[in-house]
Amino acid sequence: MKVMAKPIEMIAWFDFKGLIHPIRFRLIDEDGKYRTISIKSIQARKKEKLAGNLMQVFLCRGVVNDKEVLFELKYEKDTDQWTLFKM
Predict the structure, then answer these.
(1) 61 near 68, Cβ under 8 Å?
(2) Rounded to two decimals, what is the model's pTM?
């Protein structure tokens, strides 16, 4: 996987326990166009601290350009920002 660290727009839902379930996200590609990627499954989730900020990390599978790929998403709790970290 290649480190990208791109900001993304996310659609997710939260269960009664506060667990986050990402559904799909949108990013701006190299051509300046929006691209939507649906999340097929969440392989793993963990919490980490990055530069003192609490982050939730999701290892997910999704379909990009008709290929199933693995990617890593990060959610920063303090700023409520999502990042496509690796793809």
Answers:
(1) yes
(2) 0.90
